[in-house]
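User: Predict the full complex structure for these chains.
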Amino acid sequence: MQSTHPEATGVLAALSDELAGAAERAGRAVVAIHARRRIPASGVLWRPGVVVATHHTLEREEDLRVTLADGRSATAQLAGRDPATDLAVLRLEGDAAALPAAETADAGALRVGQLVLALGRPWEGGVTASLGVVSALAGEWRTGLGGRIDRLIRLDLSVRDGFSGGPLVDTQGRVLGINTSALARAAALTIPTATVERIAEQLLRSGRVARGFLGIATQPVRLPAALTQALGLTQEVGLLVVGVEPGGPAERAGLLLGDVLVSFAGTAVGEPAELAAQLGGERVGTAAELRLVRAGQVQALSVTIGERPRGRGR
Amino acid sequence: MSVGSAERGPRAGAQLADALGQVSATLRRSTVQLRERGRGAGAGVIWRDDGVVVTNAHVVAGAEAEVELWDGRRLPGRVVLRDPRRDLAVLVLDTGPLPAARIGSAAALRPGELVLALGNPLGWAGALALGVVHATEPPSEMGTATPRWVRADIRLAPGNSGGPLADAHGRVVGVNTLVVNGLGYAVPSEAVEHLLRRGVPATGHGGEWGRAA
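Assistant: Here is the predicted structure of the two-chain assembly.
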């Protein structure tokens, strides 16, 4: 009878073993978080006693229970959540705090085409695995809510239950980030290790991620060519101020409804996202120059950047 | 030696491609197409070399089906065992020795392990799919070491039903049966062995194994 020669197929079996080994090793740090109705959400034991998950898969903040890789159950407290990067951090209570955490690695070495596994634990049972490749890589980017993600990592693999909040794992079983299907439409993305570290640090320290706040609503408007020429502006689009929060930083600086913002701290702004990108947490409390067009003239105002209140957009 | 280091060698990719080709070619010879009058083709696995073919019960509703082998031969198959609960059926072919699949164990599978499926998805006869084991069940769910299903992250379609799901060695670990939320569900090979222990009428081409053990 026909049979496959073991030596010839050994390379396939070796790859299979390596993938299963990677899933097993990394899977020891993958937990199930009981925080929503239908199925548990995946999370990763990132440091001893600290679980990182995705913000959008946690439907409640209290009465959190976590099923660990060995089947044991532990209670957990929410340390904080950051909708802008879709990350949340939990602290485990009791004995579970002593369990070893995932072996993480910098996602900077990833290459397009590299084989990767997405792990999850969307049930009380074992870890789940999906195989795919890194589909696209790019540099730092901003989410729709202004969260700064250190590297764009797009995956080509099937998004299953438990994908979000689970780890992206290389063939050696190292965790390269936290997966999410919520940050881009119809795309499976990974929040890289560096971003997870940075956000988790802030959430553990203060329970929140500080973001700059001006207290305005804007929309893009095209600037008439005659105006840009007369004022020596190089951009064609500015941000029309359509709302000013009473008592907010922008109002205190003298900004008025109907002003058209053209730059913030020396950077031209033509899209709300470009403005949001300027409002990182490190800017809170500092002053910045706003340049705007008012009554056909360019004016400059100095604004002291506030901190975005909890539960608010920009 | 780990594949991680082999990957850096110039020929690792070619070796991997060769290996995949060999495993799937062997598996293809043990995979059949099954047709009933007026219905599309399902798949089946040549489980024993004396003409015992395993498929899904939902692929063969009647007592007989036409079985097309990898080489194009078409033979009449007779349904001799049926387990609607596990969606399994066993047919016998009256023919000489056939290239039986190697049978593996679903209980030994680990998440992340490579798996291959062969069948006739949407009518593409002998088409291969590659994926990984998605989940193995917790022992508590069954009370035994055998999982109820092998869940695979693999792209299956109608026509894969009854066909083999195999591990990286080409050993059949399950019979592809369902697609749920995009995941392939296969009946474990252990369940097939369990059914076969009920006994299959002797075909005259094999040994004594067909009697209930």
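The mean pLDDT of chain A is 92.
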